[in-house]
Amino acid sequence: MEEKKYDVVIVGGGPAGLSAAAFCGRKFLRTAVFEGDCWGGILTRCCPDKRIDNYPGAPRGISAGDLAGLFFDGALEAGADLIECAVEEISPEGRIRATNVEATAKVVILACGSAAAEANIRGEREFAGRGGVYYMVPDPARFRGKRVVVVGGGDTAVSHVQRLDGIADRVTLVHRQAGLRSQHGFPEPAARSRSLDILLCTAAEEILGSERVEGVRMKDLGDGRIFDVPADAVIVAAGRVPNTTLFRDLGLRVDSKGQVVTDAWQKTSTARILAVGDVSSPLKMIITAVAQAAAAAQEAYLEIRAPYWAA
User: Fold this and answer.
1) CATH H-level superfamily of 2-115+240-310
2) Model pTM?
3) Is 165 left (phi over 0), alpha (psi -120 to 50) or beta?
4) What pLDDT, in 10s, does the model give residues 125-141?
5) What is the topology classification, in CATH, of domain 118-236?
């Protein structure tokens, strides 16, 4: 098995990981990024055609796929090794084991991202295994002509509705609160769409069907009324949970939500292991991930180079 030695190894190739690689590379630290799924993380895995409107420097918006490409190019141009392998084990001493590759690092940066949270609806797990329940919309065309229920009220849920407008036969957005949590509400023309229903103060109680999704049982949280909405598919947008399984045995301190606890320089409770992005930040935003990556790269530089002016 090939073994490589680095100053910094970054686990995860999303916005946080690729940004950390670019910052570390510019500080002349020998850097590697391991990514076992797809470069760009959630940006390319879940919604490559989604328009990102809240990233500074892109006032007219930029597609998630294009933004991911810029992060990838930045890491590559900074000289980082981009290794397409899934990490299988991380030791507290900085040893990384992946498929056919072993690496050692003076500093490890965890940028493992997050996964979609379940909504805990009856039947959710069963139909998720059969393809009737989804947690992302990489290709809206798969919902062409279908009746879709979107569960959630944040920016992701609103984005799903917008992307399905004109493709799905009917979209029903259901949210437990009296108002949406989305920053900007529904963009036009989705807000005027005759094929959109919005159910506020309503909970999705159960996904109905035998072999396939046939509907969703709803509960009006105001008057307690129970009613069914016909559906062919359900998209859950109930937030995200940090991916911590890979480093669960490292003994890192985590908070009540399972996020890695860090200080202002992204240091964890284990020496020379840093954490950035969704795995450590309560604010799941790209700009937050990039800012944390910059702080972690500076901390890695201080740890490894120990410049005289930092004494």
Assistant:
1) FAD/NAD(P)-binding domain (3.50.50.60)
2) 0.86
3) beta
4) 999 978 899 998 878 89
5) FAD/NAD(P)-binding domain (3.50.50)
